[in-house]
Each structure stands twice: as structure tokens, then as C-alpha cells.
Amino acid sequence: MFDLKKALACAQHVTFMTGAGVSTASGIPDYRSKGGLYADSQRPEYALSADNLAAHHDAFHEWVVKNMYHPAAKPNVIHRVMAAITNEKGTIVTQNVDGLDRQAGAEHVVEFHGNLYRLYCQTCHQAIDYHDYLKSDIHSADGGVIRPDIVLYGEPIASEVLQAAVKAIQQADLLIVVGTSFVVYPFAGLIQYADPKATLAAVNKEPLELPLGAHMVLGDATQVFADLA
Ligand SMILES: [Zn+2]
């Protein structure tokens, strides 16, 4: 029987690969899971695309503010336990753009898809405070369109981010997947860089299709991580 606590104690470098499920316990719904509830022009694959931002920045802004910004959200026990472990010996590679890992104090974080609370004006590239963006996506100084520094559909992952993620996966002798069904590429493809000798585990309520030899820790992640604390 796989013992997560023991595996964590023995590991030299723990890399967590995380997704939306880690932040739902902080009250941040997974914008992708609403599925069929969106009208076509409101589906995330379009609303959150580089094309939409270029053609309809106001619609893009409205959608992002309505569906993605939850500034009152606070880190939960999963974020806190991961921060404590990785500050000592490891890395978090997350698909989440909510910044909650850093808010929990994590120092070794690769934000694979960027961070909603880091914004810039596309015209002058000045950093913009998110409070201003919540009110308007136009930079008052020059009329430029402000955007969050997140990876949109149709945009590549920045090469330095990709390299940092690959390094974190390669270094790990224990890899733990949390809060993601592991179907979103290129994130899911990162697992191919794992050391063949590394231990791989996934924490999820329902069983996931995992590479051979991977351990499934079935259960609610908040409970699993609370038990580790
Ligand atoms: Zn500007």
C-alpha cells in the first residue's frame, strides 16, 4: 500500500503538478468545468483566446473579470502544505493563474499559465495594478489595452517557463499530481520528462488514467493534505 506521508519524508525533491481542483476549496470555480453552460461566443476556448483579445478586447475584459478574478480568495490547506514542503525541498508547477501558491508563501513555483494579478499595458508595457484592470482595460496614460500576463488559447508557453517546468519535473524523485485530470496539454505532457526512477502519485477523488507504476491516492485533496499537515 502506497504511503504518501512516508514517500514525502523520504523524497529529496518533491514536485507537485497542480490544477484547478487545488483552488476550488478556496472558492475559485474551474471556469472550464461549466462546459455546456456557455454560449458559443462565451466558451473559454474562444473567450480566453488571443483572437478574442485582439478583435474584441472589451468582451475579453468582461469575460475575464466575470469568470476568473476572485481577489478575495485565500489559500487553503493544500496550498499551505505544498508551500511548506517545497520551500524545504521541491517545486510547484501549476496550471492555476490565481497566484494562491505564492500567497501561501511558496517560493519555488512555476506558474505554467501565468498569473492573473500580473498585468501590463500592451502599448507601453508598463505593469498595471489589477484593481485598475477590474474597473477598465484601457490604460489611462496612453489608451493602450491592458491584459493579464496569462497564456491565452492560441499563445505558446514562454520558453523560460517551459524550461523551468521541465527542470522541476526532471529533478523530482517524487512527483505528485493534484487537482487536475491531466488531460490539458501541453501541461499533461510534462510528465514525459520525469526520471524513470521517480515515484509518481496522483491525489484525486476519482481514479485517473495514469502512467504505469503510478500510485493513486483516492480522496478529497483538502482531507489528504490536512492529514499530512
Ligand atoms: Zn500604456
Automatic annotation (TrEMBL):
Protein name: protein acetyllysine N-acetyltransferase
Enzyme class, spelled out: transferase
EC number(s) stated in the UniProt entry for this protein: 2.3.1.286
Cited PANTHER family: NAD-DEPENDENT PROTEIN DEACYLASE, NAD-DEPENDENT PROTEIN DEACYLASE SIRTUIN-5, MITOCHONDRIAL-RELATED
NCBIfam families from the UniProt entry: PRK00481.1-1
PROSITE patterns in alphabetical order: SIRTUIN
GO molecular function: NAD-dependent protein lysine deacetylase activity
SUPFAM superfamilies: DHS-like NAD/FAD-binding domain (SSF52467)
InterPro entries: DHS-like_NAD/FAD-binding_dom, NAD-dep_sirtuin_deacylases, Sirtuin, Sirtuin_cat_small_dom_sf, Ssirtuin_cat_dom
Keywords: Acyltransferase, NAD, Transferase
Organism: Lacticaseibacillus baoqingensis
